[in-house]
Design a protein that fits this description.
heterotrimer; A mainly alpha; B mainly alpha; C alpha+beta; B: mainly alpha; globular; C: 2 domains; about 35% strand
Chain lengths: ~290, ~300, ~375
């Protein structure tokens, strides 16, 4: 082969490379559209007026007369603000309580020496395999018997521990060198002070990630709240949206429903856009949906 | 004091786990064998396998089992395959990579119920509006179908589509980072030796990321068997009426709601589900284990 | 196979706007004779790995040409060049056994070159015999030591009978003991196969010990090409002088004045040739002799006895090197005074122009 042959080969390779690139981008753009379209559609529908929407037998991809009336309806005709507030309270209290519990537990597992530490930790890990569906039945009965249905306490109690997050945090705590702990001991620092002054600040990124993931989980939780609340005053957004769908605005006021959907989705999307690096890194370290 | 202190740190976690994890785990077995349990008086008539027999004979359960299996068999391979395809695409580009990654992850952080409602509207056909998807079908010369209240396969299609949409972010993320962690030099070595693109993919890339693929398949199976809220989001809470119930949906229906009040049946169904998931996971682990030994 | 690099240049466009482009390899002209072992030597970032990648074809040159014998391979893709490349990290496929790794390149052959399973096994066995890893053929990389992995990597590069063998930092991932052993091994394999072999290293001792020729690089530019001893004995410039040799050359500020090399106000060596000018004076550690009549006075800092040799660490007001060290053989255990007098071995003293840092030739004037 001489150099002109190679020139042809190179040209061909370059062309193939280009085609491959174009196909790749087409694939990626196509899936982006599928991912983004529902978001576009809910925003679009939410700013179409009731009359316009129902007059469109064939849906239109834009609207010339946007209106915010649906948002007003969403907040006045159904207790959307209340659902929203409930979810906020639920998410914040649950996350805060869980952080307290798991930080203490992870600290004990990572730093304190005591008899039975390793067997207990293995037992914790083995509990991770137990699906929620198995224990939710008894929990439902327990909470009902305690008379905690339709209370925040009843909503929050079962979600306060997460073995997975204890595990994640313990691993992170263990990466802090032993010498720091020994140095602190020599200086007469108590365990609890060491935890708050040294370990938590060092592991802050992991703790923040765990908190964000937990907030997302709380914001999206549906099954447990559905079982435990039938009083609208305690509905979370997921249950609220289901209630709206089934008897909210009169069945067919879809633009108002979409306005509610937008309102419910926006906080998480904003949270995601701010923290997307952290969230994605956290999830890829072993989180699963739900 | 030194001996007690660690346990003080662990006390809250142990208390919560005992109350909401360990105790229920034992209790669910007891429930499942208590026959004729009455939730009002909290009494039962006898002990035996009746609850299991009842559940296994219940046509609603059979329907739920069938739906769940179809959902699992379609969505797990499909989502893993599409996820791999997209991850490969993402890994081969530089421009807009971050943007695409962020977009693809978006479904992970959305409220399943809320976005499900949007999917319902996109696929639904009503007397006033044929819906967007039907409009597209008409454009390509097909005839409209009601995906929400129509034929079984159409409803299953929507459910599978939505499930794939929801689970893909996680798979894309895991596979993208798995692909990125393959040593660049392996590809260079293969290139020097004149290895074709396809052979590089099958002989190097796939084996290198196969642990992650198996991980995704196993978690995918477990996740898909527990499908519920996606179905509720699209078809509403009365899944039995829609014929689209899932095993988990059946458990909750037995526990609470219109047909509820039967924790014993719910427990039996939950344990059947657990057995199914456990079996499939074990089969998966065996296959992946022996697969690795062959190589 | 003779390799010719003809005005080879590689420019990387800057990643951020406003920054200048990076020239990794600058106007490289070099002819590598057939069947020789060549060491590409330089500090990290000097462009030696880029040069290797250009020869292998993993990167394409911005300008200039590469010839393998009579073939212009500048635009030839790597798989058609017939090069074997051993990576610094070995890049063995972790999921394959040593045998599968070695056979992998053979399985890529197409058309008339295609080999049967038996032929592949035979060739793999032959390569394994050459690098002496036959007992480990069924092991996976994770079950082998670094040295064994290195040999598998070399076998994999050799099995397809390349025209050129390239090694990227072949010893840097090995511990000190294995390093000595493996470098002899590389030398032996190269001599047995008689392949033109180019290896990259930042370790001057490694390059000096086994190369037929070394190429010293800095900032993408060739500083000097030659046999290791020649380069050591007459470095082309201050950089090369400094880079070769452990402990390094001692460098002082000095001048040539009226037929002598002068440091401070001491005439340390009578010479002829160069004109009066400012220079850097470089003295090899082994170039010192303790002599009460010596003209070079330094301040002793500390003495380290290392068995046969004694190392004197000293300071001098005009020193450029951070630390100065003389290695001498002491016959008696006399106390070394705090001010030491040195006589210098003329062939261990180099002078470099103060402006260009190029070496200046001189003759020693016999006293």
């Amino acid at each position: 082969m001489n150099s002109t042959d190679y020139a042809i080969i190179e040209k061909k390779a370059k062309r193939n490379e280009k085609i491959r690139k174009v196909i790749t981008y087409i694939l990626l753009v196509f899936w982006s559209i599928i991912v983004l379209f529902p978001f576009y559609w809910m925003i679009l529908t939410s700013i179409k007026s009731y009359g316009t929407y129902n007059a469109e037998y064939t849906p239109k991809f834009f609207t010339l007369s946007p209106t915010l009336q649906n948002y007003a309806d969403a907040f006045t005709q159904v207790p959307l603000a209340r659902y929203f507030g409930n979810t906020l309270i639920f998410a914040i209290i649950t996350t805060a309580a869980m952080l307290a519990v798991i930080v203490l537990a992870a600290f004990a597992f990572a730093r304190l020496d005591f008899k039975g530490r390793n067997p207990l930790f293995s037992f914790f890990l083995s509990l991770m395999m137990i699906p929620n569906e198995l224990v939710i039945i008894t929990n439902f009965v327990t909470i009902t018997n305690l008379g905690l249905r339709n209370t925040f306490t009843g909503l929050i109690l079962p979600s306060i521990t997460s073995i997975f997050y204890i595990y994640l945090l313990k691993e992170n705590f263990e990466q802090i060198p032993d010498e720091l702990y020994k140095a602190a001991k020599v200086d007469g620092t108590s365990d609890i002070k060491y935890l708050f002054k040294v370990m938590i600040p060092i592991c802050q990124p992991t703790i923040v990630t765990i908190a964000i993931l937990k907030v997302i989980e709380c914001w999206n939780s549906y099954v447990w709240p559905r079982l435990i609340t039938d009083d609208e005053n305690y509905f979370l957004v997921s249950n609220g949206i289901q209630a709206i769908r089934e008897n909210g605005f009169g069945r067919e006021n879809i633009p108002a429903m979409m306005a509610a959907v937008v309102v419910i989705s926006v906080p998480l999307i904003i949270l995601f856009l701010i923290f997307h690096k952290k969230i994605m890194a956290g999830v890829s370290r072993g989180g699963t949906k739900g | 004091m030194r001996k007690v202190k660690p346990w003080l740190y662990l006390l809250p976690a142990i208390l919560f786990l005992a109350a909401f994890m360990v105790y229920p785990l034992i209790d669910v077995f007891i429930y499942s064998f208590e026959e004729g349990y009455n939730s009002a008086s909290q009494t039962f008539k006898g002990v035996g396998l009746y609850n299991y027999m009842y559940v296994l004979r219940d046509p609603y359960f059979i329907q739920a089992l069938k739906n769940t299996f179809i959902l699992v068999i379609i969505t797990v391979p499909l989502s893993t395959f599409i996820g791999l395809l997209i991850a490969l695409g993402l890994n081969s580009i530089k421009k807009f990579k971050d943007l695409f990654q962020t977009i693809f992850f978006l479904p992970y952080v959305t409220n399943t119920l809320a976005v499900g409602l949007v999917f319902m509207i996109l696929f639904k056909k009503t007397p006033y509006s044929e819906g967007l998807v039907n409009m597209l079908i008409n454009m390509f010369g097909g005839s409209s179908i009601d995906f929400i209240d129509g034929p079984y396969w159409a409803k299953m299609f929507v459910l599978c589509f939505y499930t794939v949409w929801i689970v893909l972010p996680f798979k894309i993320l895991i596979l993208t980072s798995a692909l990125a962690s393959v040593d660049e030099n392996l590809y260079k070595a293969a290139k020097i030796d004149g290895t074709s693109k396809w052979r590089t993919f099958t002989r190097i890339t796939l084996p290198m990321i196969s642990p992650m693929i198996f991980y995704l398949i196993i978690t995918g199976f477990i996740g898909a068997f527990k499908a519920y809220s996606d179905a509720v989001a699209i078809f509403g809470t009365d899944l039995n009426a829609a014929g689209m119930n899932t095993i988990v949906g059946y458990i909750y229906d037995m526990l609470y709601g219109n047909g509820g009040g039967y924790p014993s049946y719910a427990s039996a169904a939950a344990l059947i589900l657990f057995a199914v998931v456990l079996t499939i996971t074990c089969i998966n682990l065996t296959i992946s284990g022996s697969g690795r030994n062959d190589k | 196979m003779k390799i010719v690099l003809d005005h080879l240049t590689k420019v990387y466009p800057s990643s951020t706007k406003g920054n200048p482009d990076v020239t990794a390899v600058n106007d490289f002209c070099f002819e590598i004779p057939d069947g020789k072992l060549i060491g590409l030597l330089g500090p990290s970032g000097c462009g030696k790995s880029t040069t290797l990648n250009l020869i292998s074809g993993l990167e394409t040159a911005t300008s200039g040409k590469i010839w393998f014998g009579d073939d212009d391979v500048t635009r030839v893709p790597p798989e058609n060049r017939g090069v074997g490349l051993v990576f610094q990290s070995y890049a063995l496929y972790p999921h394959m056994t040593a045998r599968q790794n070695i056979m992998f390149p053979l399985e890529n052959f197409k058309g008339s070159e295609k080999l049967s399973k038996e032929e592949m096994r035979a060739k793999a066995d032959e390569a394994a015999r050459l690098v002496q890893i036959e007992p480990y053929m069924e092991r996976k990389p994770s079950q082998m030591s670094g040295g064994q992995q290195q040999r598998v990597a070399i076998a994999r590069a050799l099995v397809k009978l390349p025209r050129v063998l390239l090694l990227d930092e072949p010893l840097s991932n090995l511990d000190a003991r294995l390093r000595l052993q493996t470098r002899e091994e590389i030398r032996r394999i190269q001599q047995e196969t008689n392949l033109t072999t180019i290896f990259v290293t930042h370790d001057q001792e490694e390059a000096m010990s086994i190369s037929d020729m070394i190429v010293v690089m800095k900032n993408g530019i060739i500083q000097q090409i030659g046999k290791p001893q020649d380069v050591y004995d007459s470095p082309a410039n201050l950089f090369v002088g400094n880079f070769l040799g452990t402990p390094p050359m001692n460098v002082f500020k000095g001048r040539v004045e009226n037929g002598a090399i002068v440091i401070g106000n001491e005439r340390i060596l009578e010479i002829e040739g160069p004109e009066n000018q400012e220079v850097y004076v470089g003295i090899r550690p082994e170039g010192y002799l303790l002599d009460e009549k010596g003209t070079f006075h330094c301040t002793k800092k500390q003495v380290e006895i290392m068995g046969r040799d004694t190392s004197i660490v000293f300071t001098h007001p005009d020193q450029v090197s951070e630390s100065l060290r003389a290695i001498i053989t002491l016959d008696n255990r006399d106390e070394i005074p705090s001010t030491v007098c040195f006589k210098l071995k003329p062939n261990k003293v180099e002078i470099f122009r103060a402006d260009t840092e190029e070496r200046i030739d001189y003759k020693v004037r016999e006293a």
